[in-house]
Amino acid sequence: MHTKILKNLVFLRSHLRFMLSSVVHMDLDTFFVSAERLRDDTLKNRPVIIGGSAGRAVVSCCSKEARQFGVHSAMPVKEALRLCPHAIVRKGDTDYYGTLSRTVTEIIAEAAPLFEKASIDEHYLDMTGMDKFHDAVKWSHALRQRITFETGLPISFGLAINKTVAKIATGVAKKKVGEWVVAAGDEKVFLAPLSVKTIPGVGPETFAKLCKMGTPRIMNLQLLSCELLQAAFGKAGVTVWEKANGIDNSPIIPYQEQKSISRFTTFEQDTTDMNLLKKTIISFVTELSFELRSQQRLASCLTISIRYSNWDTHSRQCRIPYNNFDDVFIKTALEQFEKLYDRRMLIRMLGLKLSDFVTGGYQINLFEDNNEKIELYRAVDTIRTRFGALSIVKAVSL
Predict the structure, then answer these.
(1) Which residue, among 295, 314, 294, has the nearest Cα to 304 in the 3D structure?
(2) 318 neighbors 283 (Cβ within 8 angstroms)
(3) Same domain for 47 and 57?
């Protein structure tokens, strides 16, 4: 009797695994550093820092050789050089990195049935149901090898039943052999010994608070009730508890579905008032940038459109580093407008469009950003979220 029950359980489990999600998270290893080493092999095996040249610039990426001296991302470059004075600093080339990123995305698009581009250097691939036709581990291994062979860029992957566990598995893979698989049902065991700061979304403040609660490791969180974390952190506490227990129902967001956001206006009277035109552009940028940040997106393509009084319509498009900050878009938009507006005729309509999105929060990849600037945007967004998008605007756009 017991043998028959056991056989039935084995049978059910073998069929249930085909119904479970299968997610691969692929992340380029120290992407900016690896990209610089592609075109300058003298940087190999040497401490490299990618960051800005301004006085308060921060480290956007660093090699493992630099990390051994305590250097890490978001650290001021001056502090990084104090810790590792012999490090080589490169300002970075976002156009070059963007081209390499698109090449990797194209390779993945050819192979994966469904994928999400989470940032410039990471992708989620949905392999659910593919085990019926392909071994997911062998398939992911082959794709990883192909990406490295065709681009020269090292890449790691984690394979699990959801995005959270797959992403954490990739972090483990980077310290091992570049690949890590978490079998369905082993999520809690895999996560238990890891630090709570490995959970996506747990920042320094949350980590410090969790440590004060006596939960420095995920195994400690797993022992707490969801209600306790909810009382301490609100809705975010529920999310942290779920992720600590290997629960994540967030879907893969198809990369192809991400299109554009835009603002257009037709003036009551056709105009050549440059102050009005520029203020309108700045107003558009402010609204669209806030919308991007609210949706956790970055854009890498900007388009300016104008329609003259004779109804002739012209547009100018340019590529930019993945971004969602007002000042970067404003500078680019005004430059493109000045190049586009060459007739000095009356303008009837003016428009701005941002496109080519990736999901994810802002990453320090402008090489001139500093913590003060990032915190300023966060504070402004908090006010807008609470009191409305127009509750705080740039004075120049009034």
Answers:
(1) 314
(2) no
(3) yes
∠ CA 293-116-248, rounded to 5°: 85
Chain-centre distance of CA 195, in angstroms?
Answer: 22
First-to-final CA distance of the chain = 80
Strand partners, 51: 59
User: Does residue 280 belong to any structural domain of this protein?
Assistant: yes
Of 230, 257, 284, the last residue of a domain is 257
Domain range for 216: 185-257
Considering the chain, what is the average pLDDT of its residues? Answer: 85
Domain co-membership, 203 together with 271: no
Q: How far is CA 174 from CA 4, 30, 331, 353, in A?
A: 43, 10, 37, 37
- Angle at CA 263, nearest 5°, toward 352 and 281? 50
pTM of the full predicted structure?
A: 0.70
Give 57-60 contacts, CB < 8 A, sequence gap 24+: 57/367, 57/368, 57/369, 57/370, 58/364, 58/369, 58/370, 58/371, 59/364, 60/32, 60/92, 60/363, 60/364, 60/365, 60/366, 60/367
Residue 143 located in a structural domain: no
At 5 the pLDDT is 45
Which one is catalytic: 36, 65, 122, 287? 122
DSSP state of 85: T
- State residue 17's pLDDT score: 40
Give the count of domains, the chain. 3
Mean pLDDT for 339-344 is 87
CA distance 201 to 127: 24
Q: Is 205 a catalytic residue?
A: no
Q: How many CB atoms lie within 10 A of CB 266?
A: 11
Q: How far apart are CA 384 and CA 390, in angstroms?
A: 7
Radius of gyration over alpha carbons of the chain, in Å? 24
pLDDT tens for each residue of 373-393: 666 666 666 766 666 555 565
**Residue 77's domain is classified under what CATH number?**
3.40.1170.60
pLDDT value of position 128: 85
Residue at 347 is within a domain: yes
